[in-house]
């Protein structure tokens, strides 16, 4: 390998990177072969803990029997015995048994490692009660067993020890090696794109050099008074940050979706980037439960600092300090106490767009400008991967970035429009590549969990009112489910798509298995075009529920100090310090919080939609009618307004349920849109004055 690298004309850094890649690939192959060899004839042990009692319909029970692997029966006779047990629900109880593996490597690994039960040693309690009716594996790679017993068991009870062997699937090698090969191909592709892109940009800058435009009425040097204001405003904002962190430490985390990230789950139950970021923080600074709280506060107060400083440096007005007003809006302030990616995303967007506005307001040196663009890129990269639908909020920043790149180069109008459209399209392609490629290669293990429930729910929304069963293919259903079950479920869950297809919960209601379906998107489009009025009514129902719904994710002091009784939450929190497992107010803190909560300013989501839409339309009209007013600030106002309004629209179109937290980005974007428009008007006033 080294000799080959020496013969190729590559930079030293490229050769090092290629060598590291090759070493990693060899390590993956060696580790896989070693695991396969070591697992041969190896026996490991796991405690069997009662997780929960299972309730199934007779049809669901029989479907489980057909797929299960028996342990205490021969495979041939098990199905008939299991079917009989399904009929006897009065005297028999079915339990899910969680295997607590004593070895962290040789155990059931989802999609990667199957376990084969060799022998079970029952506890003395079970021996006294008598033999279980049957015990089987519903799946060999999920670390659970199921038992059917003629007596009741206690949740958490240890019923024995299972000895097992492990068989590692070739999917393990295919997955990890495939990722490395994909990474190599991606780097090669980026290299081949980078070289011509760099040449194109160099030629473009030579052909259309950036013209220096003097900043009118703007002194680059800051007076002592200016420096004092900037220092004082920074101290005020830092004090507000410290106060909220002190008041709400460590943040309210008793939300199931939050524990997906905190527990470093890298399946696509939720966006995976927060799990990776938390993993890095755990490694660098230790495990703490307040990191997600900081993900809300740090971007928010950083964004406020950029707004205040940007306005003051540009307009030299003491009124710039009033731009801290978002702190006094209850929707924003009290949501920031809650640890959830749905609330840290709006703060990332707020910070990113505030930094862009700062760049428009304040001229910086070339070095500082480069640093700022790198920081802006990192913030928006994190934002677009922080939630599944964040692309609709992030992409519009390209409107102003491309405009900033092209303006002041002396390009004629026709050529400018052409290059602007090409630039925005290129940014759209880049955003799509990021949201498609990056998460798929961060998800472990593969494959990604299907997200079909939204489309199935929308098909039902179009077809159930028309009683059109042809919208769903017969092969999609469970064997014991039919069109009538879909109709009944849709009428029960008009605003909830989860029971249609998600893999967790709703086992007795779900009409379709949690898997990919052939022709789903084709059937979805057919249903929309076949019954457009019913589909529009379905979406309008979501729009009313989402846009005009009062925010519910703001808790009083009693709720905020609740201690969980959920065994799973207790287990996750037990990995962290005792002082971080819940919010505990002192009497003083509780009085302060209650006072702030009782006097909070509450705006429903329509305020954000209206502000975004109003600024977007007004900016567009001014852009089309007043050519002399066109500048980057007007484009910024349009772009942020566009981001807020179309985020609200696409959230309604693709939301799985009417959960108000999904609308949380809209209000901060609406506020930034109006702030950007105020900056535009002040800028116009200064032009006229000068």
From TrEMBL:
The question of whether Transmembrane is a record keyword is answered with yes
Where does the sequence pass through the membrane? Answer: 16-35, 180-201, 228-247, 268-285, 291-311, 318-337, 343-364, 371-386, 392-408, 420-438, 605-625, 632-654, 666-685
Organism of origin is: Helicobacter bilis
UniProt keyword Membrane, yes or no: yes
| Protein name (record) | Uncharacterized protein
* Annotated keywords: Membrane, Transmembrane, Transmembrane helix
């Amino acid at each position: 390998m080294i000799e080959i690298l020496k013969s190729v004309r590559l930079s030293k850094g490229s050769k090092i990177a290629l060598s590291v890649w090759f070493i990693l690939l060899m390590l993956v192959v060696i580790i896989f072969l070693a695991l396969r060899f070591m697992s041969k004839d190896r026996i490991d042990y796991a405690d069997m803990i009662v997780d929960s009692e299972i309730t199934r319909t007779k049809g669901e029970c029989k479907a489980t029997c057909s797929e299960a692997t028996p342990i205490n029966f021969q495979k041939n006779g098990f199905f008939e015995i299991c079917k009989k047990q399904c009929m006897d629900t009065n005297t028999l109880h079915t339990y899910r048994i969680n295997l607590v593996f004593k070895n962290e490597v040789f155990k059931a690994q989802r999609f990667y490692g199957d376990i084969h039960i060799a022998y079970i040693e029952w506890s003395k309690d079970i021996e006294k009660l008598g033999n279980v009716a049957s015990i089987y594996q519903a799946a060999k790679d999920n670390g659970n067993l199921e038992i059917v017993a003629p007596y009741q068991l206690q949740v958490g009870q240890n019923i024995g020890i299972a000895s097992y062997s492990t068989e590692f699937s070739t999917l393990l090698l295919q997955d990890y090696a495939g990722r490395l090969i994909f990474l190599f191909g991606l780097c090669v592709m980026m290299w081949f794109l980078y070289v011509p892109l760099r040449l194109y940009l160099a030629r473009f800058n030579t052909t259309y050099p950036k013209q220096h435009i003097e900043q009118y009425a703007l002194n680059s040097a800051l007076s002592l008074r200016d420096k004092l204001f900037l220092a004082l405003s920074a101290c005020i904002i830092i004090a507000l940050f410290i106060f909220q962190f002190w008041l709400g430490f460590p943040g309210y985390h008793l939300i199931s979706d939050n524990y997906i990230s905190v527990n470093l789950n890298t399946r696509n139950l939720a966006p995976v980037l927060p799990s990776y970021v938390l993993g890095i923080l755990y490694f660098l600074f230790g495990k703490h439960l307040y990191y997600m709280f900081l993900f809300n506060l740090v971007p928010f107060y950083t964004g406020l600092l950029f707004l205040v400083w940007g306005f003051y440096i540009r307009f030299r007005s003491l009124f710039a300090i009033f731009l801290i007003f978002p702190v006094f809006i209850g929707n924003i302030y009290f949501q920031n106490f809650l640890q959830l990616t749905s609330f840290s995303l709006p703060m990332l967007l707020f910070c990113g767009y505030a930094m862009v506005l700062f760049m428009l307001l304040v001229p910086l040196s070339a070095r500082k400008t480069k640093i700022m663009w790198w920081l802006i890129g990192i913030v928006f990269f994190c934002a677009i991967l922080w939630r599944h639908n964040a692309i609709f909020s992030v992409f519009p920043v390209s409107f102003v970035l491309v405009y900033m790149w092209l303006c002041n180069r002396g390009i004629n109008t026709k050529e400018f429009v052409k290059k602007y459209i090409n630039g925005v399209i290129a940014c759209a392609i880049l955003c799509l590549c990021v949201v498609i490629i990056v998460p798929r290669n961060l998800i472990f293990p593969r494959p990604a969990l299907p997200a079909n429930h939204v489309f199935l729910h929308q098909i039902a929304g179009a077809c159930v009112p028309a009683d059109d069963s042809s919208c769903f293919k017969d092969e999609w259903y469970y064997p014991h489910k039919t069109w009538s079950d879909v109709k009944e479920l849709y009428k029960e869950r008009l605003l909830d798509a989860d029971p249609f297809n998600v893999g967790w919960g709703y086992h007795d209601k779900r009409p379709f298995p949690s898997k990919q379906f052939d022709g789903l998107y084709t059937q979805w489009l057919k249903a929309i075009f076949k019954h457009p009025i019913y589909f529009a009514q379905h979406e309008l129902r979501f729009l009313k529920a989402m846009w005009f719904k009062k925010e519910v994710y703001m808790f009083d002091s009693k709720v905020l100090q609740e201690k969980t009784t959920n065994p799973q939450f207790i287990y996750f929190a037990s990995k962290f310090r005792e002082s971080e497992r819940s919010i505990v107010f002192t009497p003083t803190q509780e009085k302060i919080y209650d006072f702030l909560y009782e006097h909070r300013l509450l705006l429903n989501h329509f305020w954000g939609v209206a502000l975004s839409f109003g600024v977007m339309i007004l900016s567009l009209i001014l852009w089309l009618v007043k050519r002399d007013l066109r500048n980057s600030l007007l484009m910024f106002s349009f772009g942020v307004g566009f981001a807020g309004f179309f985020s609200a629209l696409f959230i309604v179109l693709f939301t799985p349920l009417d959960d108000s937290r999904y609308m949380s980005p809209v209000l901060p974007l609406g506020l930034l849109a109006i702030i950007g428009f105020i900056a535009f008007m002040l800028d116009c006033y200064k032009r006229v004055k000068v």
